[in-house]
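Give me C-alpha cells for this 450-residue protein.
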Amino acid sequence: MRSDFSSTVIEILKYGGSTFAALLAGCVYTMTDAFFIGNWIGTDGLEAMALIFPVTVIFASLGVLFETGASAVVSQEIGAGKTTLAEKIMRTNYVCGLLIGIIFVIAGNFFIEPLLALLANNPEEYRIVETAVDFLKIILCGVPFLLTIYLTSTFMRCTERPTHVFFFTGSTALLNIILDALFIIVFDWGMTGAATATFISQASGALIAIWYFKYSKQKLATSFGLSGLEYIATEFKIGAGFAIAALMSFVIEYLLNVILLEYDAIHLLAASTLSNVILTFVYLPLNGLDTGIQPLVSKLFAANQKQHCLRVMRFGFCLTIILTFIIYLPLMIFTEEIAGVFVDEGEAVTSEMITFLRLSFVMQPFVGLYTWLSGIMAALEDEWRNVAISLLPFVVQMPLIVFLPKMLPTEWVALSYAAQDFAEAAVAFLLIRPFLKSNGISFKQIFQVQ
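Here you go.
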C-alpha cells in the first residue's frame, strides 16, 4: 500500500508538477506585462489590458483546443504501442497549427479595431481603445508561434519528457521578463514595448521547438504533412469543450467591459484586469496538475491498467483539493496586498476594486473540483459533456452580468463569476457519473483504498 501510494504520488508530481511549473512560466507573460504596465504605465494601461484580455483568450482557446485533444489522442496511441502513428499525428498537428495561426493573424487585423471601437463612447474611452488595438496588432503576429509552443509542450509530456516542458517554457518566460524591463523601463516604449517583448519571446519559443525535435534525441521524422488529418477531427471533438469554454470567456469579458463602461465604472476595468491576472495565476496549480496527469490517465486506461489508473485519479483529486484551499485562503485574506503589487504606489486600490476582486474569488474551491472532473472526461476522450458545461455561461453568468448592476452597486457584477464557478462544478458532477459508468468506473472505485 505504502509503495503504491509513494510511487503514484511521485508519478503524478512528475507529470503534474513539471506541467504546473511550465504553466507558471507561461503565465509569466501575462503577469509580467501586468506588473510592468501597472507600475510604470499606470491604471490607464491596466484599463487597456481589460479590453485586450478577451481577445487574448481567443488565442488561448486555440492552444487549449490543440493541447487537450492532441494530449488524449497521442497518449492513447503511445499507450497502445503505436509510436509511429503517434509521430505522424504530431507532425500533422504542427502543420494545422501553423495554418490556423496564419488565418488568425490575417482575420484579426481586419476585425480587432472595429470590435473594440464599439466599446468607446467618449474621448477617454477612445484613447484606451486605441492603446489596446496597437498592442493587439503586435501580439497577433505571434499566434502561430504561440500554437507551436502549446503543441511542443504537449508532445514533450506525451513522450514522457515532462521536465523538458519547464525548461522550454521557462526560457521564453525569462526572456519576456528581461525584454519587458528593457522596453518599458529603459526604452520607455509603454504598451508597445510590452507587446513587442511578448512577440519576440513567443518567436524564440518556436525556434527552440524546431531545434528540439530536429536535433535532440527526442526528434520526430523530418517530413511534415497532413497524413494524420483524420485524427485531428477526433482531437477537436475532445478539446472542443475546453476551447468553447475559453471562447465563452471572451464573450463574458467583452460583455463585462460593455456593462462597466455603460455604468461609467471605467475604474473597475483595472480591477477586471487584476482579477484576470490573479485568477490566471490561481488556476495554474490546478490546471498544471490535472493537465499534466491527463496523458498519464489516457495511457493507463488504453493499456487496461485499471487499478493504476484509479489510483492516479484518486491521488490527483486529493492533491487538487489541497492545492485549491492552499491558494484560496490567502487570496481572500490578502486581497488588497496582492492587488497592490500590480498598482503604482501613487494610485490607490479603491474599496470598490477590492470588493470586485473578493466577489470574483469567493467560490474558488469549486474550481478545483470542476478542473479535476473535466480533466478525467478529457483523458477518457469524452466529447459532448465538456461542450455542454462550456455553454453554461449563456444561462448563468451572462444574465447576471446584465441584471446585477441594475439591483446592486456596479462592483457586485463580479458575483457572476462566483455563480459560474459553482454551476460548472455542480453540472460536471451530475454529468460525469453516467460517463464513468459507461467506461466501467465509479466514484466508489476511485475513492476505495485497496
